[in-house]
Design goal:
heterodimer, A: 495 residues, alpha+beta, Uridine Diphospho-n-acetylenolpyruvylglucosamine Reductase, domain 2, Uridine Diphospho-n-acetylenolpyruvylglucosamine Reductase, domain 3, Vanillyl-alcohol Oxidase, Chain A, domain 3, 4 domains, 7-stranded antiparallel β-sheet, 5-stranded antiparallel β-sheet, 34% helix, B: 443 residues, 16 helices, 37% helix
């Protein structure tokens, strides 16, 4: 649904637009309706809001000047990378502007000996690895969208990928940030060196979903490519056996670089689109990648195979060369888009469970699928227990979307009941804010609000995201952080 | 002064036998001569919360306390009414061995925690100083302490995935989760790591764990020059070897080890300690490869293993505390990997000029140098200020980890917090508006 803004007058808008043009120049301010449409949503396309303007700044200074204007006029602003986010984190605010970082896309510093790369936020994830791979290095976090998604967006969402079981997620590879605070101040936190004095603001800002400011420079850690990589593909009749294999492998003291599971729906649709060499009749496949010193990989391989066989693997295929290995992964990385072949619409869920609970949770998801009469395809980062159930539906069918969202919500409840999380890498954003209270009570949310208020007392920076209900910023110590009755009744918001 | 009736209320919360009020007993809980009026040993999280509620209402300052191994870190507290010790909060809540995670109360010593995890052949991949003695999990989080193995495993920000905290006003909250991958809400474990008790009392923590490596060997190798040793470091780091820990020990430090440790290694030379932990075959293969690299650069070394190896790494972790029983000056410098030789040279020059003695172990793959200094107060102060000036000029940092008060009077403990300081202060103010928790020690 598209919401129209109405309250700002045309003359106010013209004046505000002129101010923005004064800061960035005419080509850096988008104001025509047909161009604004592209910024109405991110990859969660179910929610759309048209921003009043989109700005395309070239520097932290320009962002700072824009934000100061917004601050002055009480205009909310939403930062945006490539718009690949799946939780609506870049959904514009009513009566707000979007700050697109697409022009700030330079790699500023490649420092191989010190194992650092400094980039602007609009740099695409894969560019970082491309810039260092000839020296034998790479940037570890590799979300499926890595050929389009940007580092700035990765920082906002603390993005993961298929290799984070061993190497961690974005936050483990970001050492410093330059950012514009919600009042326009430009600060630097962390940097190329480690152990800076003071609170770990870098760690706090990574994953804060664009609520604490706009990141304008990111210092990344790069790591050396391993001596050896072996990828194997095991097929199973039952997905539960694939799930049990995962905790079986870690229980034997082996931490693979990645472990991914796909069910029969995914296998078939991926095979039809990519032709990754997956066994088309299997109930599930498990991809396991081992890397490290050759001797370590060689020692671990038979252990993994033993576990797989013990869990009824029908067939185990080891990629014979780099080309086959890449093909195995290509299938996995195209799993979401390939779904389009078997269903007109699908909803991607993102939940986390302890990996020892994989088998039982997959069973429960199967039961929910039956209960709702909707197909659920499973493709996920099994090693870290990060599920991505895809609920398949048909938008043209009355009530299907509502049922889908309800089913997806029930899956999250299952995850939390098992001691897990409502999101492993896609973020809370707009989509999941109502589920945050499944994990966090009022005290927990109040504490998070103390942080938000330290950064953004006016609540202008990506407002309306993350928190289940609007929260006010008042003088600390007054114990009145709870929602005001007026707000509760939906009669007004206070910032 | 604590009012008598308030003291009684506090004693009632924990029970009299879980409190200290006699002056003689209180002294060892003093920080920089700021001695508290009462030390409380709450038995559960609720009691910590009850105490903080009283402290908040009465505006009493609180020093959170693990085992006191890092009580000299930071500025002198402005006030010290109550010490809250987490000593009785020492229960492991859950060890999900098949999920490689564990949750524990914060007052447990790392040693005790590790030995419980070891039963399942797992461990928390942290090797900070004092691990052999009494350092607690909560204290290690609050100070973001780490050791040589950070090269392979990283620091607490990689392992701390969830926590429970009692805030200044007594509110109990949790942050993060109990699963290894989670992005729901702000990353509070990061904020609390290294927050030195200024934002709340950490009462519970959840960590991701690793399997205990099967086998370990260390190559200890000396070089005739700093340049040769560092060239070797750069070659090693740029190779595909997976090194667990890699330290450059300066000649003064290795000489002190050689005497103690029966190492039979040339003293007075820059020496590398290169530790590899993995499956046995991978250790042997890699030790053999790195020996070749070291030999090519003129290194003379030997492989050590077993008890002697363990002892060496304990010495590397704990040398500042082993070398000096009192009046210790310990600092941590942080630079880029390539800048380490420049720092070692600068420290050498300052030592010669100012007549001080410096013992250094440099985490060569992380750009961190642990420096222990012996000398006249004024010479130490001059040297530290010059060193900090040099480090700032190359984009580095210096933190004073431990020093007698007269040294701290002449050298800033933390140095420059950078442009993020205003936000840090706002966070501190929002979490602790009356500045009750470790006031003045940090932010």
């Amino acid at each position: 649904m598209t919401t129209q803004h109405k309250s700002k007058s045309i003359s106010w808008k013209k004046k505000f637009r002129d101010k923005l043009i004064g800061i960035i120049g005419a080509t850096g301010v988008i104001s025509s309706d047909d161009e604004l449409i592209a910024y109405e949503c991110d990859a969660l396309t179910g929610y759309r809001i048209k921003p009043i303007f989109v700005v395309l700044p070239n520097s932290a200074k320009e962002i700072s000047d824009v934000i100061k204007e917004c601050h002055h006029e009480n205009i909310p602003f939403v930062p945006r990378g490539a718009g690949t986010g799946l939780s609506g984190g870049a959904l514009p605010s009513e009566e707000g502007i979007v700050i697109s970082l697409s022009r700030m896309n330079k790699i500023l510093d490649v420092d191989i000996p010190n194992q650092r790369v400094v980039v602007e936020p609009g740099v695409v994830n894969i560019w970082v690895t491309n810039a260092v791979s000839s020296s034998g290095y790479y940037y570890a976090p590799d979300p499926s969208s890595q050929i389009v998604c940007t580092i700035g967006g990765n920082v906002a969402e603390n993005s993961g990928g298929v290799h984070c079981l061993k190497y961690g997620v974005t936050t483990n590879h970001v050492l410093g940030l330059e950012m514009v605070l919600p009042d326009g101040e430009i600060i630097e936190v962390g940097g190329k060196t480690l152990d800076h004095p003071g609170y770990d603001l870098t760690g706090l800002v990574v994953g804060s979903e664009g609520l604490l400011g706009i990141v304008t420079k990111v210092t990344l850690k790069i790591i050396k490519k391993p001596e050896d990589v072996k990828t194997l593909l095991a097929s199973f009749d039952r997905i539960e056996d694939a799930g049990a294999s995962v905790s079986g492998i870690t229980a034997r003291g082996v931490i693979p670089a990645g472990m991914e599971i796909m069910d029969s729906f995914c296998i078939r649709s991926v095979e039809e689109t990519v032709g990754a060499g997956y066994p088309i009749d299997a109930g599930a496949i498990l991809l396991v990648e081992l890397d490290g010193p050759t001797a370590e990989v060689e020692e671990q391989m038979p252990i993994v195979e033993e576990v797989l066989k013990g869990n009824m693997a029908i067939e185990i295929k080891v990629a014979k060369d780099n080309k086959e290995r890449e093909l195995f992964w290509k299938g996995r990385k195209n799993a979401f888009p390939a779904m389009g072949r078997i269903s007109s619409d699908y909803y991607v869920q993102d939940g986390v469970i302890p990996r020892s609970k994989l088998a039982e949770v997959l069973r429960e998801i199967g039961e929910l699928s039956k209960k709702y009469g909707l197909r659920v395809a499973n493709v996920f980062h099994a090693g870290d227990g990060n599920l991505h159930p895809l609920v398949l539906y048909d938008l043209s069918k009355e009530g299907d979307l509502e049922k889908t969202l309800e089913l997806a919500g029930e899956i999250l409840q299952v995850c939390v009941d098992k001691g897990g999380s409502i999101t492993g890498e896609h973020g809370v954003g707009h989509d999941k804010k109502r589920f945050l209270s499944l994990m966090f009570d009022e005290n927990d949310l109040d504490t998070m609000n103390l942080i938000r208020c330290a950064f953004d007392a006016k609540g202008l920076c990506n407002p309306g995201k993350l928190f289940p209900t609007p929260r006010t910023c008042v003088e600390p110590g007054m114990k009145t952080f709870r929602e005001h009755p007026v707000q509760k009744a939906g009669l007004g918001e206070m910032y | 002064m604590l009012k008598k009736n308030i003291t009684n209320i506090l004693l009632k919360i924990v029970g009299e036998k879980n409190a200290l009020t006699k002056e003689a007993k209180l002294e060892s809980f003093g920080v920089e001569n700021m001695v508290p009026e009462v030390v409380l040993f709450p038995n559960d999280i609720e009691q910590v919360s009850e105490i903080m509620k009283i402290a908040y209402k009465e505006s009493l300052s609180v020093l959170p306390w693990g085992s006191g191994t890092k009580s000299t870190l930071g500025n002198k507290p402005e006030r010290a009414d109550i010490v809250i010790s987490t000593k009785n909060l020492d229960h492991i809540i859950e060890h999900g061995a098949s999920d490689l995670v564990a949750t524990t109360e914060s007052g447990i010593t790392l040693k005790k925690f590790q030995s419980a995890l070891n039963k399942e052949n797992q461990f928390l991949a942290l090797d900070p100083p004092h691990v052999g003695s009494k350092a607690t999990v909560g204290g290690i989080i609050a100070t973001n302490d780490s050791g040589p193995e950070r090269l392979r495993y990283g620091t607490l920000r990689e392992f701390l995935i969830g926590l429970k905290v009692v805030r200044a006003d007594g509110t109990i909250f949790k942050g993060g989760s109990k699963v290894v991958k989670n992005v729901a809400g702000y990353d509070l474990p990061k904020l609390y790591t290294g927050s030195l008790g200024t934002l709340g009392i950490i009462v519970e923590a959840t960590f991701r764990l690793y399997p205990v490596p099967e086998y370990s060997e260390t190559y200890l190798v000396s070089f005739s020059s700093l340049e040769e040793s560092h060239d070797t470091v750069m070659t090693l780091l740029n190779s595909d070897l997976v090194i667990t820990s890699l330290e450059i020990l300066n000649p003064e430090l290795i000489s002190s080890f050689a005497k103690r440790n029966d190492l039979e290694i040339e003293d007075n030379k820059y020496t590398l300690a290169i530790g590899i932990k993995n499956v046995e075959k991978a250790v042997k293969d890699q030790i053999s490869s790195l020996k070749t690299i070291c030999d090519q650069n003129g290194g003379k070394g030997k492989v050590i293993r077993g008890a002697q190896e363990e002892k060496l790494w304990e010495d590397i972790r704990d040398f500042p505390w082993k070398l000096f029983k009192a009046g210790r000056v310990v600092c941590k410098a942080s630079v880029l990997i390539k800048q380490i030789p420049k720092v070692l040279e600068t420290v050498k020059r300052l030592s010669d000029e100012n007549g001080i003695k410096t013992y250094i172990s440099a985490r060569a793959g992380n750009g961190i140098l642990i420096i222990s200094i012996k000398g006249e107060v004024s010479s130490v102060i001059d040297s530290l200020n010059s060193l900090r000036g040099f480090l700032s000029s190359i984009g580095g940092h210096l933190i004073l980890q431990e020093a007698p008060y007269e040294i701290k009077a002449g050298v800033s403990v933390w140095g420059d917090f950078g442009s993020g300081l205003s936000i840090m202060k706002k966070i501190k103010f929002n979490f602790d508006p009356n500045n009750l928790l470790n006031p003045g020690r940090y932010i």
